């Protein structure tokens, strides 16, 4: 099956865009994951749509990834095809609207906006995800989120068709969007920003990034916040985990960060099994002590 889809994809993708048995630890911020049977990195939106349509038409399982910053990949690897959007790097500007393709990091887009003295994406400068992943998850930090600056997006729908969706159609909620609910793939987006002074914009960016450095374990591989913010006033996943006495708790090479208990970090040769076991343990202990079930924010792909 892998060789068959490889031949089909080669009609539009060059050899350099396709790799067999690619180690997924090279493509996740956790630095964890077995091999993908086939790893594909299209360089145009047309190629992305072709890859998706080809997999669907030929019954090949596939997963879409961006920067791999909110992702845990199975130790047993990924069956079928992993399609990366990282090759989609087009960016431009019209007045106060920034157009960016899915593979660009949010930091790259925030810095591009800074260069054009446009404000609104300062919160996103330190988020390690891509445009595609940021919209998919409605990524946010420090009171800002993608929904606040989103104008429209180019998406590939469940039928493999390229279409455009506006703000209302995207149905944003906390760490949620229509892309998750309707099996949509983000190909690119437009962000509506406001004119601002370069100094003021950069001051905000530096302030947010300084806070991240002080409070988050950025020196270790991780997938960022492990759990979503629980529903209920004043509830925070990291605080609940800390109050449960789990700071520094370790399973294998995975550890609940003592610096910020909302993060599970790879302290050396952690496996996906280690991380999964630690997440399950934290969920169980927090539920037993506080009656709150922590919902995972990190996505898992690959063989069970």
What does this molecule look like?
- With 304 residues, the protein is α+β, with helices and mostly antiparallel strands.
- It has three domains: 2-84, Uridine Diphospho-n-acetylenolpyruvylglucosamine Reductase, domain 2 (2-Layer Sandwich); 91-200, Uridine Diphospho-n-acetylenolpyruvylglucosamine Reductase, domain 3; 218-301, UDP-N-acetylenolpyruvoylglucosamine reductase, C-terminal domain (Uridine Diphospho-n-acetylenolpyruvylglucosamine Reductase, domain 1), CATH 3.90.78.
- Helices cover 30% and strands 26% of the residues.
- It has helices at 2-9, 45-57, 106-115, 131-137, 167-170, 178-181, 198-215, 237-243, 272-290; strands spanning 18-23, 35-40, 62-65, 71-73, 78-84, 91-94, 97-101, 118-119, 140-141, 144-145, 150-156, 162-166, 185-192, 194-195, 222-225, 250-251, 254-256, 263-266, 299-301.
- A five-stranded antiparallel β-sheet has the order 6-7-13-11-12. Strands 1-2-5-3 form a four-stranded mixed β-sheet, with helices on one face. A four-stranded antiparallel β-sheet has the order 15-18-17-16.
- A hairpin with a 6-residue loop joins β17 (254-256) and β18 (263-266).
- It is globular.
- The chain starts with a helix and ends with a strand.
């Amino acid at each position: 099956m892998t060789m068959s889809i490889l031949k089909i994809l080669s009609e539009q993708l060059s050899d350099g865009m396709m790799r067999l048995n690619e180690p997924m630890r090279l493509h996740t911020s956790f630095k964890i994951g077995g091999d993908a049977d086939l790893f594909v990195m299209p360089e145009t939106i047309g190629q992305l749509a072709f890859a998706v349509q080809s997999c669907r038409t030929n019954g090949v399982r596939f997963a879409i990834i961006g920067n791999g910053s909110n992702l845990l990949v199975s130790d047993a690897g990924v069956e079928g095809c992993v399609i990366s959007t990282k090759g989609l790097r087009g960016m431009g500007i019209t007045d106060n609207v920034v157009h960016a393709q899915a593979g660009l990091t949010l930091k790259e887009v925030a810095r591009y906006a800074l260069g054009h003295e446009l404000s609104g994406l300062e919160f996103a400068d330190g988020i390690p995800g891509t445009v595609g992943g940021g919209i998919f998850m409605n990524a946010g930090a420090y009171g800002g989120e993608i929904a606040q600056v989103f104008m429209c997006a180019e998406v590939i729908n469940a039928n493999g068709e390229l279409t455009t969706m506006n703000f209302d159609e995207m149905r944003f909620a906390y760490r949620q969007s229509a892309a998750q609910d309707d099996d949509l793939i983000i190909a690119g987006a437009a962000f509506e920003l406001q004119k601002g002074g370069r100094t003021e914009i950069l001051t905000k960016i530096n302030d947010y990034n300084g806070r991240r450095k002080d409070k988050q374990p950025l020196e270790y591989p991780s997938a960022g916040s492990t759990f979503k913010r629980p529903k209920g006033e004043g509830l925070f996943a990291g605080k609940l985990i800390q109050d449960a006495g789990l700071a520094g708790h370790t399973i294998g090479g995975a550890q609940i960060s003592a610096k910020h208990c909302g993060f599970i970090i790879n302290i050396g040769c952690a496996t996906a099994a280690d991380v999964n076991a630690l997440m399950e343990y934290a969920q169980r202990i927090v539920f037993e002590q506080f009656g709150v079930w922590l919902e995972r924010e990190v996505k898992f792909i690959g063989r069970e």
